[in-house]
Specification:
- Helix content is 19%, strand content 46%.
- The longest helix has 21 residues.
């Protein structure tokens, strides 16, 4: 019974995070997003343990080649919207790089995937030590030489 309660709780938490990327009407003081040069970048870092509870064969269980095994693995999800109408951006190249404060950068391409019918970008990262990390997100659009970049801090507990 306890196991089913834990699964239900984690599934609810995952659904709440996924809902962040499905809708677009969020209050200006919501956490987890930044607007840079007219591009609104929503982001979330989710422990892989939550995604490992997804049903076999589901999008969450199979994206990016499946949920990696191991400790300290997290999934970075990024959803992009442009302009005041918050039109979802589906044609970008998105890269994330991260580093523990004071150490070198690691970089990965974020892959497009669909959650609840909405295109999102993401990939798995291993945060090997507990502590604070800086994560940079870079967005490139086809036909433009401009790169939109934002930075946020992540605390791995």
């Amino acid at each position: 019974m306890r196991k089913s309660y834990v699964r239900a709780t984690l599934a609810t938490a995952l659904a709440a995070v996924v809902a962040l990327f499905v809708g677009t009407g969020y209050a200006a003081d919501s956490s987890g997003y930044k607007t840079v040069d007219g591009l609104t970048i929503y982001y979330a870092v989710i422990p892989a343990e939550i995604l490992r509870l997804s049903p076999e064969g589901s999008t969450e269980a199979t994206m990016h080649g499946g949920v990696p095994r191991g400790k300290h693995i997290h999934h970075l999800m990024v959803a992009l919207f442009e302009g005041k109408n918050m039109k979802r951006v589906t044609d970008a190249q998105v890269t994330a790089r991260f580093r523990e404060i004071g150490l070198g950068w690691k970089k990965k391409q974020l892959e497009p995937f669909t959650v609840a019918g909405a295109l999102t970008y993401g990939n798995y990262f291993t945060f090997s030590d507990l502590g604070r990390y800086t994560i940079d997100i870079e967005v490139r659009r086809p036909g433009s030489s401009d790169v939109v970049t934002t930075e946020f801090e992540f605390r791995h507990h």
